[in-house]
């Protein structure tokens, strides 16, 4: 069961009563709960979900402005405890005294231990348990405990081990991940002209590509997480860099054509591995490359990307391998017609 369904059941059962006035939903997702509160003010930094909410005519922003006020705030939990505590602190800051804070999450997201931690500082006024998850709510006291300021401070962006600005909840915020390091080691001198970085995160790989390839004239960073992209803007100051809040898998062939694409695609959304995400990155790269263009890709060795690579490119070779990673170079994207034919072969 999803948070949105659990929240809807909590409201429909009468267990959770939302006060009159503005309702803010952090990490908002479409579904049954928002259908019950169609005027909710939604915050969602992940572009595909943001676009879904916008198409449904929801009031949605990637980041609500400082000074936002509400009668109630719902916090949907992520897998990052520090990010969650920071969101709870933000939510409390949006409330007047007596305003209602609602926390919703699954056991897989650590909702039980997190709500115990929050409860040590701010006792809950009620809870609703359903299908391996929990909804907890409390009313904001006039005086917030010191722990709330500590939660907020711990969630703020700060330089990581590599000196790059990151924040909890971003991918590998403590340091550049091993896959990106493996790909970066293969890139010096290989890139020139117009380059795209798909799933650019907070910008470490793009920064390495620019510093080791003086022949690059432009590098476009595409990233679905608006907060990670904001960090990338701070981290990559090279004038050749441009930044796009975008779902890389939705990029279509257009007037922009690239000489090269680099990518360390995510291979899971949540806890389960989803190789289709990487396959969608490969297809997007083929769409935006020039006919003579090249994709440089890093992936876990066990991920089955060979078939989508063979379908999308005329030439594919492994140019590096170590530990659990493989680095692949794919040249000359196939036309849509020939790609269809190649993928149909046994």
Automatic annotation (TrEMBL):
It is an enzyme of class 2 (transferase). It comes from the Bacteria. InterPro entries: DNA_methylase_N6_adenine_CS (IPR002052), RsmC/RlmG (IPR046977), SAM-dependent_MTases_sf (IPR029063), Small_mtfrase_dom (IPR007848). Its EC number is 2.1.1.172. GO terms for molecular function: 16S rRNA (guanine(1207)-N(2))-methyltransferase activity; nucleic acid binding. The keyword S-adenosyl-L-methionine applies. CDD domains: AdoMet_MTases. Keywords: Cytoplasm, Methyltransferase, rRNA processing, S-adenosyl-L-methionine, Transferase. Residues 164-328 form the Methyltransferase small domain. SUPFAM superfamilies: S-adenosyl-L-methionine-dependent methyltransferases. This is 16S rRNA (Guanine1207-N2)-methyltransferase.
